[in-house]
Amino acid sequence: MLPTPGSWPRLAMRDAEYRRVRLSGTFDHDRETLVQALTERGAGFWVLTPLRTPQGTVLVNRGFVPPERRQSATRSAGQIGGGTTVIGLMRASEPKGGFLRANDPAAGRWHSRDVAAIARARRLGAVAPFFVDADASPNPGGYPLGGLTVVSFRNSHLVYALTWFALAALSGGAAVVALRTRGGR
């Protein structure tokens, strides 16, 4: 279930990120934003489109388009008019930029899905402090291509490595003790 606007200021994304949600409303295609993306499909753009819902405006990452589909006219069949329903995953805003580059709203160059900055640049008014990655439900005309969300978990590789090295050292120490004890008998 989509959080209500009253709960948005208190929303802890660490608990809500990747929550599956369903929302209905009308897309505002004239205010879509393209964010540079590098996916399993190659380089291209995420298409972030405001969805006006009865609960408020939510940015929806409708999916990926390759560079040759950057212009909305090249994917007009996917510009869904009227009411629609989106199923997807809640995602945290990305205000730090991406690819080691900062967003440049004045030039229309976006490297991260920074909800607040996009809302300001597109004059969207109050929007949810998160965005929704659309699932793989096909769009008319094939684009944008949804369902490419990469679920990322906390990186604990160092802790795992230290644990395994400690277990190996303890096992080696136990083997030395066992061999000394056996050799002394």
Helical amount: 10-25%
What percentage of the residues does DSSP assign to strands (E)? 25-35%
Q: What's the story with the biggest beta sheet? A: 5 strands, mixed, barrel
SSE-based structural type: alpha+beta
Helical stretch tally:
3
Rough shape? elongated
Mean of pLDDT? 89
Termini separation: 69 Å
H and E order: HEEEEEHEH
The residue ranges in which pLDDT falls below 50 over 5 or more consecutive positions are: none
Physical arrangement of strands within the biggest beta sheet: 1-3-4-6-5
The number of strands is 6
- What would you report as the Rg, rounded to the nearest angstrom? 23 Å
What can you tell me about this protein's structure?
Strands 1-3-4-6-5 form a five-stranded mixed beta barrel. Helix content is 21%, strand content 30%. The longest helix is centred in the C-terminal third of the chain and has 27 residues, at 157-183. It has three helices and six strands, in the order H-E-E-E-E-E-H-E-H. A hairpin with a 2-residue loop joins strand 2 (33-39) and strand 3 (42-53). The protein starts with 12 loop residues before the first helix and ends with a helix. The protein has 185 residues and is an alpha+beta fold. The mean pLDDT is 89.
